[in-house]
Write a structure and sequence with these properties.
This protein has 72 residues and is of the alpha+beta class. A 4-stranded antiparallel β-sheet has the order 1-2-3-4, with no helix packed on it. A hairpin with a 2-residue loop joins strand 3 and strand 4. The longest helix is centred in the last third of the chain and has 17 residues. The radius of gyration is 17 Å and the shape is flat. The model has no long low-confidence stretch (mean pLDDT 92).
Length: 72
């Protein structure tokens, strides 16, 4: 079976004082999702993209940026 859903931790400073209307809190003070399941597979867990090497991605983006600035 497959499922698509996200989970948000509402116990954050950004949501304080707004828990009387959790939907409005999420819409007007969006925060990163804590868990995301797409087609039955966990894609975000504890706020981090599963399987993403962020350091490598930042390095590749920085290299591409340098090439663009240099006109390469």
């Amino acid at each position: 079976m497959a499922a698509d859903f996200i989970g948000l931790n509402l116990n954050r400073l950004a949501y304080s004082g707004a828990l009387h209307d959790p939907l409005a809190a999420v819409l007007f003070a969006p925060q990163p999702v804590d868990i995301s399941v797409i087609n039955g597979r966990v894609r975000v867990q504890e706020g981090q993209i599963v399987g993403l090497d962020a350091a490598d991605l930042v390095a590749r983006h920085s290299a591409a940026s340098r090439r663009l600035v240099r006109g390469e």
